[in-house]
Amino acid sequence: MRTTIRIDDDLYRSVKQRAAATGRSISEVLEDAVRAGLAPRLIQTAEALTPLPTFGGSGVVPGIDLTSNAAVRDAMDDDQRLDALR
Fold first, then answer.
1. Chain centroid to CA 63
2. Measured distance CA(16)–CA(31) in Å, rounded
3. Cβ of 82: how many Cβ atoms within 10 Å?
4. d(CA 86, CA 72)
5. Is 37 a residue whose pLDDT tops 60?
6. Which residues contact 19 (CB under 8 A, 6 or more apart)?
7. CA–CA distance from 17 to each of 6, 24, 31, 34, 82 (Å)?
8. What pLDDT band is residue 71 in, cutting at 50, 70 and 90?
9. Rounded to two decimals, what is the model's pTM?
10. Less Cβ around it within 10 Å: N or C end of the chain?
């Protein structure tokens, strides 16, 4: 299908350079870029994620319900030192 689109001059130059460097037409480079842009994003697996740091301690602070976002938020906003809650 033929169509007309407007492309930024610098972007067009980059596409034209990529086409020349890879021996493909400008249309082929643009089609591949659009396909890549429309493809669903892959969800990272647990192995690919950077592990979060862990710290020693006695576990969950007593009196905080981890199933309640409001309780966790309130505990984080509290001016008391966490060591005093343990």
1. 34
2. 13
3. 12
4. 15
5. yes
6. 25, 26, 28, 29
7. 18, 10, 15, 17, 58
8. confident
9. 0.48
10. N
